[in-house]
Amino acid sequence: xxxxxxERISSDIHKYLSNILLTETRDELLKTVTITDVxxxxxxxxxxxxxxxxxxxxxxxxxxxxxxxxxxxxxxxxKVLNIRSIPELNxxxxxxxxxxxxxxxxxxxxxxxx
Length: 114
Known about the structure:
Blueprint: H1 2-23, H2 28-31, E1 33-40, E2 46-53, H3 59-80, E3 88-93, H4 96-113
Helix pairs in contact: 1-3
């Protein structure tokens, strides 16, 4: 039953963080970011936030910008989440979409050869 609590909190962070990035930030780079997943630690001290972006900047630059915005985003989350303490936000670029695109490209090339 405890897993439901962590899943709910992860889901809430995902939902609210996505909304904050889209509607409340002024930085256009942050508006290009899409949150793909959130996982929280058992003690709720840390939340690993996976994201992608349609920006032309490198992953490292976007990740750096997200880490700089983390205190602002955490403060915004504190206003909407009903938990005792808000987890630290650790942003990680999600490469799974790019990986899936590479696999899809390889598969389509194999089908072209046949």
